[in-house]
C-alpha cells in the first residue's frame, strides 16, 4: 500500500497543472496571500507539461522489455515481438491531453494489447472470486507511475481502453520508449500515459 501511495504521489507531483501555473504568475491578491500559508508545498512547485530530462537525453530512458511482476502466477517479460503475437487491437483518433487541458499529441492510429489481457495471461493470484482487491502499477524508467484498480480494469469501461501500445501512426515507438501504457477512457489521457514503461506490478490491497 505504501508503494501505491508513493506511486500516486509521484504521479500527482509529475502531472502538470496549468491552474497552479496561473496562480503562481498572477498578481497576488489579499485573499491569495491570506490562504497561501495553507497551501501544500506541491501547490507552489513549478509545474510543466512534458518530461523531466536530466540532461542525459531520452535514450537513457528507453526500455526494451516490460516485466509483469507481483501477485501473479506467471511473471512475464514483455517485448514488442511478444506483444505482436498476442491479441493486437488497433486504436484510432485519440489525443494525449495533459491535466492542464493542453493537447500533447494526436494519435491517428496505434497498435496495442489490452492491459487486462496481459494480466489475464500473467494470472493474478486470486484465492477465490471475492479476492479481487488488487491494484496495478505501471512504472517507467524515469520513476513516473500510473495506478489502476482491479475493478476498473476487469469490471468497468476503463478496462476496455487501457492498453500497452507498441506502435503509433504506423511506426514502432522510439524515443518515447518501445512500450507505453495508455488509458484512453480517461478524461485527461496525459496522466496515465506512461512512456518508457518498465514494469507492470500487481499488488494486493492490504
Ligand atoms: N515516463 C513518463 N511518462 C509520462 C510523463 C513523464 O514524465 N514520464 N509525463 C506525462 C505527462 S504529464 C503527459 S501530459 C504526457 C505527455 O507528455 P509529453 O508531452 O512530454 O509527451 O505523458 C505523460 N507520461
Ligand atoms: Mo501532463
UniProtKB/TrEMBL annotation:
Gene3D superfamilies referenced in this protein's UniProt entry, alphabetically: Oxidoreductase, molybdopterin-binding domain
Extent of the signal sequence: 1-15
Segments of skewed composition (Basic and acidic residues): 35-46
Location of region: Disordered: 24-47
Pfam families the UniProt entry points to: Oxidored_molyb
Alphabetized UniProt keyword annotations: Signal
Residues covered by the Oxidoreductase molybdopterin-binding domain: 63-203
Biased composition (Low complexity): 24-33
Name listed for the protein in its UniProt record: Oxidoreductase molybdopterin-binding domain-containing protein
Organism classification: Bacteria, Pseudomonadati, Bacteroidota, Flavobacteriia, Flavobacteriales
